[in-house]
Amino acid sequence: MRPLTLIVSAVLLSSCGGSDPSAHGERTIVAAFYPLAWAAEQVAGSGDVVVNLTSPGVEPHDIELTPGDVERVRDADLVLYLGKGFMPALEDAVEGAGNAVDLLAGQDVRPGEEPGEADPHIWLDPTRYATAVREIAAALGDPDAADALVARLNELDREFRQGLVRCHRRQIVTSHAAFGYLADAYDLEQIALTGVSPEAEPSPRALEDLVQKVDEEGATTVFFETLVSPRLAETVARETGARTAALNPLEGLTDDDLTEGQDYFTVMRANLVALREALGCR
After folding, report:
1. Whole-structure pTM over 0.90, yes or no?
2. Residue 32: is it exposed, middle or buried by C-beta count within 10 angstroms (0-12/13-18/19+)?
3. DSSP 15
4. Residue range 222-257, pLDDT digits in tens
5. Are 228 and 234 a contacting pair, CB within 8 Å?
6. Topology given in CATH for the domain delimited by 164-279
7. What is the rounded CA–CA span in Å between residue 66 and residue 68?
8. Under a CB-based contact definition with an 8 Å cutoff, are residues 255 and 57 in contact?
9. Helices of type H across the chain
10. Per-residue pLDDT band at 119 (split at 50, 70, 90)
11. Does domain 7-157 have CATH number 1.10.3300.10?
12. Which of 70, 155, 157, 197 has the most C-beta neighbours closer than 10 Å?
């Protein structure tokens, strides 16, 4: 895996002239990947600098950090990450540091979740994401800064509840187990072709069992993800007569997505449209 380049995702104040932000009383906030960086940008002060450790279009699982990355993490005023093994290299870099907040630590464990197999994808449930947003604002010393974004997330939650309440099917077939929190929130069942890590591959026997289950459930759609190969999803779809469609886990946006003005809300609403079509919702 190639080393990741630090991407400064917030724009410095024009008066700074590219000088050291700390000299102007600004804070540097290092975020592990897109959902945390984007949330930090929404609630941070106007002079704060948000740095996303994961480059656009790069899958953040198991990222490698360069020595420079580690130094930036240790020098940051605040580091936002998800623990429990989601990003081991970053967890090692922040171990024992007083500037890091594990936003997964304050979340309730999903029902049936096994120790050591924590599902990190809390941002795909707007209400859990709202909890993380409030933690970020509190860590920055301004809890009220979260209010506007939390209100928007609550509205998004209502849209999902209304949009997914009357559907012919409740099972979503996904290429990896990223959508468990979303499924739990809206009374859906996730059928995942692989585990929490998208790099895992099922054995031939496991794949045969998955094809049989998808066929038995009568699923019409097998979802693949934007940052990983669709090959497995295409194989299962071909064997079951289903179609494939994209469902974005929002672990990162591509350069094209960012250029087009895509963000958390536009992608989540596109996901809702895809789910409604796949599930035959009215």
Report:
1. no
2. buried
3. G
4. 999 887 788 889 999 999 999 999 999 999 899 999
5. no
6. Rossmann fold (3.40.50)
7. 5
8. yes
9. 34-43, 67-75, 88-94, 126-139, 147-163, 180-185, 204-217, 231-240, 255-259, 264-279
10. confident
11. no
12. 157
